[in-house]
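Quick review question:
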């Protein structure tokens, strides 16, 4: 026996909470399934099952029996779901337009011209496109649900409109039945057609809202490059990401997204890892350092060895986590699920009760009113805001968080966040703008104004993010870069330049130690104050003499 497997599959064709409940119920009934949870807003099924007993194809077939479909192609599931949603939205839009084109004249005839001879036949002809084309899916889905001894919102729409239409059809063909009893044979074609038109508008609005909330996943998917540049036998060749294998050598140029997780084997650079860590300042990477898929190479070109590809990359795991979180159920939704599970049967019972009360109270003379009142009960209950509101709110919240690089573990965590009154961050970079600026200069005894030009020229050649801050500051002061003879970049330390027979350097405290330079008593106290306030310090000196200390900070967002 193998271990249980947990998967998240997109579901197509669901339109209400009862739909979601029925999919959940049919999947749970399958042998080998431990748990199943459907999120209506995300249109996903989270299922835990034993692959030795039941396969994804069997789950798909079970779901198709009740009128829905399961997308089990994991590699292209998001794309397939998006295509299915767009196709469904297009069909729904066409059906809605057709419904209103025919429903409006039916409503005008039924409300204002009901006494015109032959008007019932005109209304019948105009109602047929609405019933047979625009409303066809309601009746088909309701029939499939009935075969499985379940019901959903389609059941209510199908019952209400079919009762109104069939009653009107009978009265159109056999009006004598009522005339012989001294009753007027009323028709309700306008009720059947307008109900379908309005429900289709509601569904169209719901689909549009659900489509908007899925953009976070698509944006994350967009961070994954489509191709990679593989190095084989000294030549570079572009291949699809899906063809990339662990161990392949990949070349990455400046400005490109890193295709897979791996380790640098040649070259060094700075990489923007903000989509992973939230830190906006690019991180220096050299040979032996790990790099992650979806992050952006800033300046240098390098070669890397692929270590994790496809579903195993950190980015793929993040996407999967957000999908699972959007598909999760919050504790409050359990109450909603209990209500929606009995919602349709209760509504049907209330409709029947309403009909009987009218018949008992008014007798046969009030049959038309009894029927119309029962239909009204079914129609009013059709919009399933109760079952849709909670999962939609969760999906929107988690999706908006993902867009802002805030990843929420699951729906329970999101619900519990309302109790949070203090947030502690362990990285200052997560709350800063990512645009470092010079906030202070400390000059030592040997400092001269001509040193600014040398520092300007040296930092112009550096690729470090802090160097850009110094360059911008000197540019604002109107400084001009001096001529320098040589430039050397020391990874993790700083830069060294020569001008004439003099050596100048700028960088971290480690470079200060490399040149044996010390901090004078005059600057020591001020340097300590800068460090305590969280500023980054760049030391600039000549030979073994410290000339200046530049304080750089990143503003809070």
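Suggested answer, residue by residue:
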């Amino acid at each position: 026996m193998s271990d249980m497997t947990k998967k998240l599959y997109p579901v197509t064709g669901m339109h209400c909470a009862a739909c979601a409940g029925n999919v959940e119920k049919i999947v749970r009934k399958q042998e080998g399934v431990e748990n199943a949870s459907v999120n209506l807003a995300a249109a996903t099924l989270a299922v835990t099952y034993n692959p030795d007993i039941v396969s994804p194809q069997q789950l798909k077939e079970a779901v198709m029996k009740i009128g829905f479909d399961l997308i089990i192609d994991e590699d292209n599931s998001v794309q397939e779901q998006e295509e299915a949603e767009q196709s469904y939205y297009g069909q729904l839009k066409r059906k809605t337009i057709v419904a209103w084109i025919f429903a409006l004249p039916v409503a005008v005839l039924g409300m204002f011209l009901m006494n015109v001879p032959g008007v019932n036949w005109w209304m019948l002809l105009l109602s047929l496109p609405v019933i047979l084309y625009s409303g066809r899916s309601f009746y088909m889905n309701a029939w499939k649900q009935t075969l499985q001894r379940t019901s959903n919102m389609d059941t209510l729409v199908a019952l209400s409109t079919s009762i109104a239409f069939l009653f009107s059809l009978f009265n159109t063909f056999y009006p004598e039945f009522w005339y012989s009893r001294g009753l007027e044979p009323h028709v309700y074609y306008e009720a059947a057609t307008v109900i379908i038109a309005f429900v289709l508008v509601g569904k169209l609005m719901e689909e549009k809202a659900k489509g908007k909330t899925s953009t976070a996943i698509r944006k994350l998917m967009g961070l994954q490059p489509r191709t990679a540049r593989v190095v084989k036998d000294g030549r570079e060749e572009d291949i699809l990401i899906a063809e990339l294998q662990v161990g392949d050598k990949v070349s990455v140029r400046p400005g490109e997204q890193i295709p897979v997780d791996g380790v640098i084997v040649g070259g060094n650079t700075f990489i923007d890892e903000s989509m992973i860590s939230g830190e906006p300042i690019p991180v220096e990477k050299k040979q032996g350092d790990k790099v992650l898929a979806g992050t952006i190479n800033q300046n240098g070109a390098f070669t890397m060895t692929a270590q994790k590809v496809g579903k195993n990359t950190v980015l793929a795991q993040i996407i999967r986590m957000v999908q699972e979180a959007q598909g999760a159920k919050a504790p409050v939704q359990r109450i909603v699920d209990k209500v929606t599970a009995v919602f349709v049967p209760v509504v049907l019972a209330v409709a029947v009760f309403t009909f009987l009360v009218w018949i008992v109270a008014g007798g046969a003379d009030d049959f038309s009113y009894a029927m119309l009142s029962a239909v009204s009960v079914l129609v009013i209950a059709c919009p399933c805001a109760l079952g849709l509101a909670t999962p939609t709110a969760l999906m929107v919240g988690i999706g908006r968080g993902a867009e802002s690089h805030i990843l929420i573990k699951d729906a329970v965590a999101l619900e519990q966040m309302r109790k949070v009154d203090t947030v502690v961050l362990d990285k200052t970079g997560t709350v800063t703008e990512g645009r470092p600026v010079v906030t202070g200069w400390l000059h030592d005894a040997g400092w001269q104004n001509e040193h600014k030009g040398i520092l300007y020229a040296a930092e112009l050649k550096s690729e470090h993010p802090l160097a850009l801050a110094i360059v911008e500051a000197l540019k604002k002061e109107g400084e001009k870069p001096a001529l320098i003879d040589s430039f050397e970049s020391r990874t993790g330390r700083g830069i060294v330049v020569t001008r004439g027979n003099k050596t100048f350097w700028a960088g971290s405290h480690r470079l200060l130690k490399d040149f044996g330079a010390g901090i004078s008593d005059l600057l020591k106290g001020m340097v300590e104050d800068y460090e305590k306030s969280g500023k980054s310090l760049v030391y600039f000196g000549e030979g073994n003499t410290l000339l200046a200390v530049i304080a750089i900070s990143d503003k809070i967002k």
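Why it works: The chain has a mean pLDDT of 81. Residues 113 and 187 are 12 Å apart (CA to CA).
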